[in-house]
Specification:
The complex is a heterodimer of chains A (262) and B (266). With 262 residues, chain A is of the alpha+beta class. Among the domains of chain A are: 91 residues, 2-Layer Sandwich (Alpha-Beta Plaits); 78 residues, Alpha-Beta Plaits, CATH 3.30.70. Chain A is built from 8 helices and 8 strands; from the N terminus they run αααβββββαββαβααα. A two-stranded antiparallel sheet of chain A has the order 1-2. Chain A has a two-stranded antiparallel ribbon with strand order 3-4. The longest helix of chain A has 30 residues. Chain A is extended. Chain B is mainly alpha-helical. Chain B has 2 domains: 190 residues, no CATH class; 69 residues, Alpha-Beta Plaits (2-Layer Sandwich), CATH 3.30.70. In chain B, strands 1-2-3 form a 3-stranded antiparallel beta sheet. A 3-stranded antiparallel beta sheet of chain B has the order 5-4-6. Classes of the chains: A alpha+beta (262), B mainly alpha (266). At the A-B interface, helix 1, helix 2, helix 3 and strand 1 of A face strand 1, strand 2, helix 2, helix 3 and helix 7 of B.
């Protein structure tokens, strides 16, 4: 285009469009970087951490929890750790959470990303209600499920007999031995990771995974009829009668009629 | 040299105190530049980080709010954009790049790349929009400043690559490219520090028009009055780094307190 003079109106419009376009490029590139940086959902957070989404909003990445941890369990994610940068995490196989009763990492958090109330019972800090994750057992790799006696995880569990129980079973292969199978009680497990740390197999057969990743939810419409407390949820429910119209055709016709199938 | 030495001294000692707190438990200054505790009592927080958290939808606690207000008041009323040249560890990286750039004379062989000084305000605005839309602290998650100070205190990982990018960018792509054009934290403090008291003042009567000050100044626009008329530097972009004062052999540039300077002019 020749160097003709353009009106100030046109100049203003062009400049605005250009600025908007550049801002859009920036926003798209930047947001995709952010998406990538928070894409990892398999991160173990310190005790009392808010749900991951809120945690990422609130953590100011100051590292005070990391400094407070006496066991060097907590680390701040550095570039290359493939975790949201600057946020605290731990690797249970490496160093698990040793469940300090005074939980030094939580009260130092200035932003409430580590929520003191979520680890407080009756006004006192209570590490046993922390929910950092939940232990999951690979029963194929766990040698206790092979019939070899090992209760390393059970022994290592700070809530021995509560968070990890041993289930006894007959070993039908040999006919004379017993299985001592570790079983995790999901409701009680704090996710401290001492079991994963203690596991004797080459790669741990018991692993801590964030609860929201691995735990299911049955839904409110399932009621445990054998559980008095659960039964209370439906104590006011009154059943109506549902009547279904019975087909008047013969059963044979119904089976041969293809129209309903497609 | 005294200002350069004091700047390096504060920059290094702030990081050293953080390291001492983390490694040896010396409880003078704990945390890092995002948020810290002074003498185990006074909270200090990066107001820009807190702003991003707020926009992202986090509930701001009293501790962090007080910390951010303390820092904002200090720079807003007293120091201006002093954080950039007196505290931020990236300043040492970009100063080094800039020094090498001058020594090698890279500006002589380089075609001029056009960037607007206002780019940083766009980045600043964008960071807040993205924080709001994505519910994340948009700049904090990618900030090379945080990568460096956090890395020095808690372990670097691959953080040095970000630092290297900035070094090469300032050395080969654009003079003062990061601190003077892109960094939204610098933009934030430029706005915040616009009305602060500590200012550089120019006295034209002493000026011999050597223009050395404009060569060393990382934000040349702020010295627009040099050799023209006596005035106080009022643009918030000035980082109070005092390079101009040190390079001036004629006592034409000095620190002053804003109001006193105005009064003496009358």
């Amino acid at each position: 285009m020749s160097k003709e003079n353009i009106s100030s109106r046109r100049k203003f419009l062009l400049t605005s469009v250009r600025a908007a376009g550049l801002a859009t490029i920036g926003a798209l590139v930047w947001s995709s970087m952010l998406e990538e940086s928070v894409a990892n959902s398999l991160i173990l957070r310190p005790p009392g951490a808010l749900p991951e989404e809120d945690f990422l909003k609130s953590c100011i990445k100051c590292g005070l929890c990391v400094s407070a941890c006496p066991y060097d369990t907590l680390k701040l994610a550095a570039p290359g750790d493939h975790k949201p940068m600057g946020t605290p995490f731990f690797d249970a196989r490496d160093i698990p959470c040793y469940m300090c009763t005074d939980i030094p990492c939580v009260p130092v958090c200035p932003t409430g990303a580590l929520d003191e109330l979520s680890v407080t019972t009756d006004g006192e800090l209570d590490i046993n209600i922390a929910r950092m994750g939940v232990a999951v057992i690979d029963s194929d790799a766990c040698i206790a499920f092979w019939g070899i006696q090992c209760d390393a995880c059970h022994r290592a569990c700070p809530l021995i007999g509560e968070a990890i129980k041993l289930e006894y079973d007959q070993n039908k292969r040999t006919g004379k031995h017993a299985y001592l199978k570790p079983v995790v009680v999901n409701d009680v497990c704090t996710g401290c990771g001492m079991c994963e740390h203690a596991c004797i197999t080459e790669k741990a057969s018991i692993t801590i995974i964030p609860r929201e990743v691995v735990l299911g939810k049955a839904g409110n419409h399932y009621v445990k009829g054998w559980d008095e407390k659960d039964q209370q949820r439906v104590k006011d429910a009154h059943g109506g009668t549902t009547t279904t119209e019975i087909s008047k055709r013969s059963a044979l016709d119904g089976l041969n009629d293809e129209t309903d199938l497609y | 040299m005294k200002y350069l030495i004091s700047r390096r001294f504060t920059q290094i000692s702030v990081i050293a105190l953080y390291i001492a707190a983390h490694v040896w438990g010396l409880k003078i200054l704990e945390g890092n530049l995002s948020s810290s505790i002074l003498f185990s009592t006074v909270p200090l927080s990066d107001p820009y980080a807190v702003l991003q958290m707020f926009v992202a939808g986090s509930v701001i606690t009293t501790d962090v709010l007080i910390g951010a207000v303390i820092i904002a008041l200090f720079y807003g009323l007293v120091g201006g954009r002093m954080f950039c040249s007196w505290v931020c560890p990236i300043n040492m990286v970009t100063d080094a790049a800039n020094w090498l750039r001058r020594k090698l004379g890279i500006s002589h062989v380089q075609k001029r790349v056009y960037m607007s000084r206002n780019l940083r305000f766009w980045v600043l605005g964008l960071s807040l929009v993205l924080s709001f839309l994505m519910g994340l602290t948009a700049f904090e998650l990618v900030s090379p400043i945080s990568m460096l100070h956090r890395g020095l205190i808690f372990g670097m990982g691959f953080g040095f690559s970000a630092v290297l990018i900035i070094f090469f960018f300032d050395l080969f792509v654009h003079e003062n490219g990061w601190c003077g054009y892109i960094c939204p934290l610098g933009g934030f403090y430029s706005i915040l520090g616009k009305f602060s008291l500590l200012r550089v003042t120019h006295n034209v009567d002493n000026c011999t028009e050597c223009m050395e000050c404009k060569v060393v100044c990382p934000e040349k626009e702020v010295l627009h009055m040099v050799a023209k008329h006596s005035a106080t530097v009022t643009m918030g972009e000035c980082t109070n780094c005092a390079r101009c004062i040190e390079v001036c052999n004629d006592d034409a540039l000095n620190f002053s307190i804003r109001n006193l300077a105005n009064r003496s002019k009358k």
